[in-house]
Amino acid sequence: MTLKLLIIVGALLLLAPQAVAQELSFSQVERGRYLATASNCVGCHTDFENGGERYAGGRPLHTPFGVIHSPNITFDDETGLGLWTRDDFYRALDEGISRDGHNLYPAMPYPNFTLMPREDVDSIYDYLRSLEPVHAETPDNELPFPFNVREAVIGWNLLYFEQRPFVPSSEHSAEWNRGRYLVDGPAHCGACHTGKNFAGADVEEEYLRGGVLEGWLAPNIRGGENGGISHWSEEQIVEYLATGRTEHAVAMQRMGEVVVLSTQNMETSDLEAIALYLKSLEDEPREPVDMPDEAVMAAGAAIYFDNCAACHDSDGSGVPGIFTPLAGSNKLNAEDPTTVLRIILEGALAVPTEAHPGPLGMPAFDWKLTDMQIADLVTYMRSSWGNSASAVSESDVADLREQLEEYR
């Protein structure tokens, strides 16, 4: 072997470990990027409305206890995570405790993230560390006493938080377990779709049966018998999460944001796992409700035909994938009519996705319809075309109209 060849071989041997390390590092960062996407970290930690930088925090999160601003999670030394170690980051996601030892408010879904194994959390850390740091101070939270006392979270954790790893079920397939892990862990679907108690903690009996967050009802997403999406197939659930549209619904507002920032970027196999898991969740049969007064139904029908039938059709069938079908809608059939009322009052926008770049919108009717007219309209829709849900009162609409002023 010539001297020149020996030098080349020696150089390759010296560079090989570095090349492997770079490949592993890239793989780790890419894994973290995917998990951060599945967790929709950017959704909460970016103040899009005010032009904030991605992951630089500052988004106001409206809770029943006041406004909490999300922190900067870029690796800026002064205003972000620049001084955080992997152990610090893991403790925050696993225990809900910050680097400086203070308790995080459970608006940060560490009760879900505690299910994530250390290797998944470390990969998210490495991904965030790979991003350009942004110097961005987090605005002060707007929490009245006693909710501004962080030590109170200690009591909340004792009552409602269980630090635990994800344990697969031996009675189900690997795909089912993957779906449950994603739903309960990184994707933290229950943070919106599970009912909460007076302290803002998940109610076990209300798991994925619907919950109210920031003035929206996230509907029942149990897909088995009697569930809110029992009439959806697994393929339709995947289509909805991947594209924001299916024949049953169009993703708007908060869920539209989740699709754009998170689920449309996930692997099809993971969406299929989520769909499989949701379809396995059955629900209790709904209690029958009394039919509304005939005069209310007649008034509601007239308002519907004047304002809604042109898009949603006279029989509530809509135009699948464009104008949401109202017959069988889990939002209309929900016990809580908040989302339907809010869409009518404020209008709604289906944000563009990669599969459907053209936006869809519904106009607001708060300027046109009175509280009584909206109540009659929604009562009519909740009792027509096979739907069965309780009547809505004028005061329900008036209360929500007043509440929405707080978000403007």
Automatic annotation (TrEMBL):
Heme c 1 binds at C41, C44, H45. Heme c 2 binds at C189, C192, H193. It is found in: Cell membrane. Binds 3 heme c groups covalently per subunit. It comes from the Bacteria. GO terms for cellular component: plasma membrane. One of its GO terms (molecular function) is electron transfer activity. Heme c 3 binds at C308, C311, H312. Residues 27-132, 174-282, 295-385 form the Cytochrome c domain. Keywords: Cell membrane, Electron transport, Heme, Iron, Membrane, Metal-binding, Repeat, Respiratory chain, Signal, Transport. Residues 1-21 form the signal peptide. Its cofactor is heme c. PANTHER family: ALCOHOL DEHYDROGENASE CYTOCHROME C SUBUNIT, BLL4482 PROTEIN-RELATED. This is Alcohol dehydrogenase.
